[in-house]
Design goal:
Blueprint lengths: L1 E11 L5 E12 L5 E4 L6 H9 L6 E5 L5 E5 L11 H12 L3 H12 L14 H13 L5 E5 L7 H13 L5 E6 L2 H7 L2 E6 L2 E5 L2 H9 L2
Parallel strand pairs: 3-7, 3-8, 5-6, 6-7
Antiparallel strand pairs: 1-2, 1-4, 8-9
Helix pairs in contact: 2-3, 3-4
Length: about 220
């Protein structure tokens, strides 16, 4: 279970106004459910995933992970460092998670389809290449919970099919938290839903009920 206790998070926008993303949020996220969180653009969905993944910290409150191994957010380049090469990123993450560098590198080379770019700094990659590297490394590691930010896989249609097929195999022994403004993604993959709106989250056992309420906001 992942627990958010009285979590607050906000940030300063470019026009110097303050955006409060989360305001006194206290929720328990079950470990055995595929949770979909719906929210409009700008509601704070990506910020929420960054908090759950540990890539960011709350302004106030705490997040308790209860020994749950959580991925970084898929669908973005989160989890990789721009100054390191692709291979250096793989080695660094393998050391953190005690994974075989040789086996993981071989897997990512085949899976991410980056060729010689694996030897180049990630800051030279396109945004899609960065996301494919991060996705490939994440697929090489067994997490209890996978975080998905809007899209399940980056790249062209052929890569998306391959990535989606491999991703679904992970859910024999894992679950996911998906954030999206697309109700069809939530309906397809999730059996538990929440709505992020005006700084708060409300959960619904019935996914269709959550979607109906969200579409009428």
């Amino acid at each position: 279970m992942i627990q958010l206790k009285h979590v607050y998070k906000g940030f300063m926008k470019q026009d110097q106004s303050w955006k409060q993303v989360l305001s006194d949020v206290s929720v328990d996220i079950p470990a055995d459910r595929n949770l979909g969180i719906l929210g409009r653009n700008g509601a704070g969905k990506s910020t929420l995933l960054r908090l759950i993944s540990g890539l960011d910290t709350p302004d106030k409150g705490e997040i308790i992970f209860n020994n749950t191994r959580i991925s970084w957010p898929l669908g973005s380049a989160a989890g990789v460092h721009g100054s390191l090469t692709g291979k250096e990123n793989i080695k660094f993450i393998c050391r953190i998670y005690d994974k075989s560098i040789v086996n993981t590198t071989a897997f990512v080379e085949e899976f991410a389809e980056l060729g010689d770019y694996l030897h180049m700094p990630v800051k030279s990659y396109s945004s899609g290449m960065k996301a494919r590297l991060a996705f490939g490394i994440c697929m090489a590691i067994d997490f209890d919970t996978y975080l998905v930010d809007e899209g399940f896989s980056p790249g062209d249609s052929k890569f998306k099919v391959k990535a989606a097929e491999y991703f679904e195999k992970k859910f024999v022994n894992a679950n996911m938290i998906v954030v999206s403004h697309n109700a069809s993604i939530i309906r397809k993959y999730c059996n538990f839903a929440g709505i992020l709106h005006e700084g708060s989250i409300k959960f619904y056992e019935d996914v269709d009920e959550a979607i109906k309420i969200y579409e009428n906001l």
